[in-house]
Amino acid sequence: MTITAGKVTPNTALKVAIVQSGDKQRGIAERAHIPEVRLSKIVTGREEATPQERRDLARVLRRPQSTLFSGRRSRAAASAVASSDAVSA
Asked: What are the phi and psi torsion angles at 7 (to 5°)?
């Protein structure tokens, strides 16, 4: 999930790739073996995709992982940055 000043940022690149695939999000989720609700949370930025989910989505969408998830930071990394910002303030 990308967190900027406490805001959750949707994964627009992933959503665009899903739309451009011509398939519905449900079909992408099924082919990637990810529950549809989980994929929705990944797309909206409420949850972070695991490394396996990233690989599976890249395979199904026929796109490099770097284009689907570029600039996205893990929750742990975001928490670390937030903690260090709080300490230095």
From this structure: -100, 145
Contact criterion met (CB below 8 Å) for 45 and 27: no
Closest alpha carbon to 65 in 73, 75, 55, 80 = 55
Q: Which pLDDT does position 6 carry in this prediction?
A: 65
> How far is the C-alpha of 22 from the C-alpha of 81, rounded, in Å?
37
Q: What is the CATH number of the domain that holds 72?
A: 1.10.260.40
Q: Which residues pair with 3 in a beta bridge?
A: 8
CA distance 13 to 58: 12
- Which pLDDT band holds residue 8 (cuts at 50, 70, 90)? confident
Q: Which domain holds residue 39?
A: 2-88
The total of structural domains in the chain comes to 1
Contact 86/62 with Cβ under 8 angstroms?
A: no
